[in-house]
Specification:
Elements: H1 10-18, H2 23-29, E1 49-54, E2 60-64, E3 70-71, H3 77-85, E4 95-97, H4 100-109, E5 121-123, H5 124-132, H6 137-147, H7 153-170, E6 190-191, H8 193-203, H9 207-213, E7 217-218, E8 221-223, E9 229-231, E10 235-236, H10 241-244, E11 248-256, E12 260-269, E13 272-281, H11 284-302
Antiparallel strand pairs: 1-2, 1-13, 3-6, 4-5, 7-10, 8-9, 11-12, 12-13
Helix pairs in contact: 3-6, 3-7, 3-8, 4-6, 5-6, 5-9, 6-7
């Protein structure tokens, strides 16, 4: 490393190099106190955009088109959860009755689903699991309908999306806009790797969110129309890093025709947390490969 010989004039350095000295003598002179660190090679990823930061300090560790606006797919649901968890006097055990409109929406959009059953009463907590693990657009709709304000469902949904955008502004996400509660946008639903990472870092401070997104599988017990208990089929987390990358603590996958394959990810090792995002990767497998490369690089960089 250049820093190891800073201040040593060329002639002195050449003379020193010609003389064999013991390791002890070298250490005694203070000329060399440690082996030079190996440079960490910046990884190459397939994703069109990427960003990684040290979660504790917010320091950027990796960027690739980090501020380029792109479709976000279901990583949008991170903001859906953020808005819900930011409600004053939130009761996670409050029950929401599943409406036919939520089911119809899934069918009409061929959307990812938590397979919620019309007429069942589901708690807000359960809806958050349904939102973040199987990426249920029906759960997203139910939450938007519950926590938006207005006399009609359309008004409530519009209100909820408004809350998503105002929250983005409050968090300083200047390259982010939402026109949907789940990522199935109408051409005006976008963010950037940097903004999504900042959003995830913020909401990971919430204990409920953190618990939900690191859960691999969850079985909800709902209340049916007749008052009996229904045990839903297990919801499996779409984030495969939870199984493949030691220390993974979240966060959320996303995909779509325009978004391609996205992943907001976070892992903790040796007390340090690296958090980041890849947008527009080429496949489910590749987005995980990209994220793994960036996590490895992030940990190697922060030491």
């Amino acid at each position: 490393m250049i820093t190891a010989i800073t201040g040593i004039k060329g002639s002195r350095f050449r003379r020193a190099a010609a003389v064999t000295v013991t390791a002890g003598a070298v250490l005694a002179t203070g000329a060399l106190t440690a082996a030079p660190a190996q440079a960490v090679t910046k990884p190459s990823i397939v994703a069109a955009g990427g960003f990684v930061m040290n979660n504790a300090t917010g320091k950027s560790l990796y960027t690739k088109a980090a501020d380029t606006k792109r479709s976000t797919g279901s990583t949008t649901k991170i903001m859906t959860a953020k808005v819900v968890l930011s409600q004053s006097n939130l009761n996670l055990d409050a029950k929401v009755t599943i409406q036919k409109a939520y089911s119809d929406y899934i069918v009409a959009n061929t959307a990812s689903s938590a397979h919620l059953i019309v007429g069942d009463k589901v708690t807000v907590r359960q809806l958050l699991y349904g939102l973040m693990l199987p990426s249920g657009c029906d759960a997203a709709y139910a939450l938007a309908d519950k926590f938006g304000t207005g006399s009609t469902r359309a008004a409530r949904v519009k209100s909820f999306i408004g809350k998503m955008n105002s929250t983005a502004k409050t968090l300083g996400l200047t390259n982010t806009k939402f026109d949907s509660f789940d990522g199935i946008g109408n051409g005006n639903n976008y963010s950037t790797p940097r903004d999504l990472t900042k959003l995830a870092s913020n909401v990971m401070k919430n204990a409920t969110f953190k618990t939900v997104v690191k859960t691999k599988s969850y079985k909800a017990k709902t209340i049916t129309k007749t008052g009996s208990t229904r045990t839903m089929a297990a919801w499996t987390n779409t984030n495969t890093l939870l199984s493949s990358y030691s220390g993974t603590i979240g966060v959320k996958t996303g995909s779509g025709p325009e978004a391609k394959y996205c992943l907001v990810f976070a892992a903790t090792r040796n007390g340090k947390t690296v958090i980041g995002t890849v947008l527009a990767s080429s496949s489910v497998t590749q987005r995980s490969t990209d994220a793994t490369k960036l996590l490895n690089y992030g940990f190697a960089t922060i030491g």
